[in-house]
């Protein structure tokens, strides 16, 4: 949300600066493109973080912080080779 606020502030500044100027069109194009930059950077960061987390979920990986905080579920079945074993939780709540 902060990036949208920054973009809105830049566009508002552009409207104030270009009022009464003879080169309104050129200045508005330049400042509006400058206003889009924070939004694009934030969207790119969100896209990379989301695609990384989806790839981890697809591989069945869990971040270490989440594994420490929540622990394994009580009915977790671990498959090693051809043998399946059940793991009891350590009581983390």
Report on the architecture of this protein:
The chain has helices at 2-18, 24-59, 64-70, and strands at 77-80, 83-86. With 93 residues, it is mainly α. It has one domain. Strand 1 and strand 2 (83-86) form a beta hairpin. Helix 1 runs antiparallel to helix 2 (24-59). The longest helix has 36 residues, at 24-59.
Question: Total strand count, please?
Answer: 2
* Major sheet size, sense and barrel closure: 2 strands, antiparallel
Percent range for β-strand residues: 5-15%
Q: What is the ordering of alpha helices and beta strands?
A: HHHEE
Strand order of the largest sheet: 1-2
Instruction: Give the overall silhouette.
Output: rod-shaped
Task: Map the helices and strands.
Blueprint (H helix, E strand, L loop, with lengths): L1 H17 L5 H36 L4 H7 L6 E4 L2 E4 L7
Antiparallel strand pairs: 1-2
Helix pairs in contact: 1-2
Q: Which keywords apply here?
A:
3 helices, rod-shaped, mainly alpha, 65% helix, single chain, two-stranded antiparallel sheet, 2 strands, 93 residues
State the gist of this model.
By secondary structure, the protein is mainly alpha-helical. It has 3 helices and 2 strands, in the order H-H-H-E-E.
């Amino acid at each position: 949300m902060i990036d949208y606020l920054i973009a809105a502030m830049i566009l508002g500044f552009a409207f104030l600066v270009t009022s009464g100027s003879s080169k309104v069109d050129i200045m508005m194009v330049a400042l509006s493109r400058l206003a889009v930059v924070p939004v694009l950077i934030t969207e790119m960061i969100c896209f990379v973080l989301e695609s990384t987390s989806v790839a981890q979920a697809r591989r069945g990986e869990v971040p270490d912080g989440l594994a420490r905080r929540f622990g394994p579920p009580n009915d977790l079945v671990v498959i090693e080779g051809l043998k399946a074993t059940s793991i009891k939780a350590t009581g983390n709540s």
